[in-house]
Amino acid sequence: MTYWWLFILWFGAWGIVFLMIFLWRTAERLSQWKPRPRPNRPTKEELDRQKQELERRQRENETQEEAQRRREEARTACERLFVLHAPEIKDRFPRETFDGFVTKHLGDGRPVEYVERRAKDLQEIILDHLRKVVPEPSILAAEARTEARAAVQGCYDENADLLREAFPPVRFDAEMRVRLPDMVPAEEAWKQARDMIHELLVIVADEKIKQNRQKPPSRKIKPPSEKPPMHNI
Q: How far apart (Å, rounded) are the C-alpha atoms in residues 166 and 210?
């Protein structure tokens, strides 16, 4: 029995030692532990402010994209007019001069209104040089050109609601100046007018198809079914 008591005392002493070590390490870890800061949830005002900021940035991006599209259309109109009449005016207005004007006044760093205004000036310069080397058209040619322009303009005005987004007025005016300039012969004027009217009507047809697809399907209301009369039995 004496040995058993010694064994129990020895085991209990070591158990107390291990327990004290465990408690000491646990107390040390608890003294070094720091609670993690909880993330602050944004308030309703902060969420509204973030939403407004996001919408503002989206509007700015859309405005910048629209401005860039208008710049490119203005440059394209000038390019088409120059290429069309380059053989006649190359000695008076060479390609290097045209490129220099475009680089200086029609770059992406300029405001879009300035680019469009300068693009019209450049088109007038090209037409002025063309008038110097090409004889003035006859009165009949001028009347035919005026009638051709009026026909195209009437087609556009008649379908303005459908064309305003797909073919904006700025682009339409540029197309008119390029394809129906002052020096165009009567036959060519009517040919260009017919082509433009055809192109406009194709766009109108496409826009009508898009609108019909976007309309929700109409529900047909079924008439109430007639119940057979009840007969007294």
A: 12
